[in-house]
Each structure stands twice: as structure tokens, then as C-alpha cells.
Amino acid sequence: MIRFGPAGIPLSCKGRTLRDGIADIHHLGLTAMEIQFIKVNPLSRLAMDEEVAKSPRDLLQQLVVTVGNNGAVGTQPTLAMLTSPLKRRDNVTTISTSLAKDYSDLQQTKALARALDVDLTLHAPYYVDFFGSDEARERSQRQIQWAAVLAEGLGARMVMTHLGFYGAVGHDQSIEAIMQIVQDLSTWLSQYSKGTVRLGIEPSGHPDVFGSQQEVLELVRRVKGTVPILNLPHLAAREGKTFEKPEDLDPVLQEFLRASGGSLYLNFSGVEIYRPGEFRLTPIKRGTVRFDPLAELLAERDYDATVISSSPLLEHDAMYMKVLYERALTRRWMKKHSPPPAPAARPKAIAPIPSKRKPSARPPSRPRPSASRSHGRPKGRSARRARKHKHPEGRRHAARHR
Hints:
By secondary structure, the chain is an alpha/beta fold. Helices cover 38% and strands 16% of the residues.
């Protein structure tokens, strides 16, 4: 099954809440949505007296992500931490976001998405730095974990992220330097969500950021529980390719398909490439990378794929990609089920039809008067005088002038 959807709340949605966006996506005929968890606003405080003996997930108007005992700040979220009753002197870390106010709000959104058959995924904050200082690495890890807590509450099946700039680490040592961090995140995510949420690794179009095609595929092969994200505009900007033909795109598609275990997750938009590392996402019709070759490949086989529109037009380009895919699917069906053309029959020689009309007899020509008969006719003045005498008026006129 191929699903299409936008990266965020549709632009045409009148309401700006997450549930309004899911309902609008369903009304547009789309079946997927990538939730954008962009900004994180954490707040740490001590548990209030009225919150003691209550579960963190039962608090109203509060999204608790970690709990630390005896005033200490919590390290990483666990199911036991978020379901155990609060105690005095517990340090509670909450986040404020427009996605939901509390855990009951998350459950309502989850129920709506399942009822409308809208597949949800969540993108973690974009600013992460796993190659920097210890503080930056720990902060990035906390942000991805908090995003995973929201994803599990919303029923999203994946949390995707970039991994940051190389920094002082060279390209050759980048996978070795980051593999243990990604392994720890994947293991924690599998335990917290009980295997329902996976970690997606997204490529980057900037050459100074971790995320070339080979780096993403190699990291996913080494770390269990991770999924590669096929972001074609970023790969095109990084490698300087346009993927004009299906033959150019098919090897890339097959590599990501094998690494992901049979299910594809794609991000697509138009892209304008100025020089290596400098590009801009555009609407699909204005970009240098076309969706038509990808639509032809997706229509050739029964893929299990999700295609997300990350262009500035969001749901408009998601619907446009769906139309292109349906056209390619129709051409494939007609080619497969159309009857074979009938062999051309040789034209038969047509015999001339005899005419039934009898040839008419030619009437005999009248004989011309002989020259001897014309000698007795009057000529000149005498002829005119003879004609006057024949006509009555001529005879009276002649008699009057005599």
C-alpha cells in the first residue's frame, strides 16, 4: 500500500491543532502525516502537594517526560517512571508543545488518527549535535527521547532525526564515533515503546552534516531497530544527481528497500541546487528533481511505502504526487490487462461490378442541307424586304410608304 501525506498540518486547514490537521488530511483523501516536533520547551520543578500519589500520566494540563527522585533531574524516561505514583521531593520535568496539553490529549489524537486511517510519524527537533561536546550530545539525546515519548502516546510508528555536523570527527570515523550513541537510543526506544516505535535516520543535503547515502545505509545495517529515510531532494543536492530516469533511481530504491526490511519511507519535494551544499526546497513543479520516475517505479510493484511531501506547498504537492502515481498505476494496469492486438487482415481484391445499364442507341444525325438548296434564298436587301412582307406589321408599313 502506498500512503501519501504532508510534513505537518496542512496549509489549507482552518484549525491549527494537530487533530484539526489529521481530520483535514482525511478529507483531502490522504492517509499519512509527519508530525513536526520542532521546538522543545522543558521545565523542571518539584512535585506539588496535590500531585503527590498521582501518576505523571494522570496529571491534567501537564506533559511529564522525566521524574527524578529526591530533587535530582531525571535522566531518561522509562515506563516505570511515568506510571509510578509521584512522591514528595520528586523533580518533575515537563514540556510545553502545541501538539498536546497532556497524555489524555495524546490518547484522543491517537484514537482519531486510527479511526480515520491516517498513519502518523514524528520528526524530532532539527538542531541536534551528536559530534559536539558532552553537553550538546546529552541535550540532543534528551530531545529525541522526549520526541519518542510523544510518538508513543500519539501512536506514531517512527521517530526520525538528523545526527548533526561532523565537527572535528572525520568522515571516515563518523560511523564508529556515533554508532554507540545510536545503539543506545535504539535499545532504549525498543524497551520504552515495546517495539512499536522505531528510530529513523535521515540523510542530509549538506556535505558538512552526517548523512550521505552510504553512511545512512551502513549505520542502519549495523544498528538493529533503525530505519533509513529516503530523502531524494537531500540526496540529489548532496550527490549532484537529478534522477531523470527510472533506471537511475531504481538502484537507490532497492538499496533502501533492503536496508529497511521491505517498507519504504520517502520524503519528496522540488529542489533547486546552486552549488554543493547550497540548495533550496521548492514546489515539485519548479524543482530539478521530478516525481514521475519515482511514480513509475512505485507502480511497477506492490510496495509498502509512505511518501511525505516536504515541499512548501505541503498537502497540495502530496495530492499532486498521488495523482501522478495513480496515472502510472493506470498505465501499468492497461498494459497488463489490455487484449493483444488482432493480426492485420490482408485486403481482398475487389472485382469490378458489371454495369446493368444498356448502352443507349445513338440517334441518327440529321443530314446537312445540300449546297444546291441554298442558291434559291434571297440575300441582302431583298431578304429583309421579304421578311417584312411576311409579318403583318411589315406589310402595313410597306403599304403606307408606297
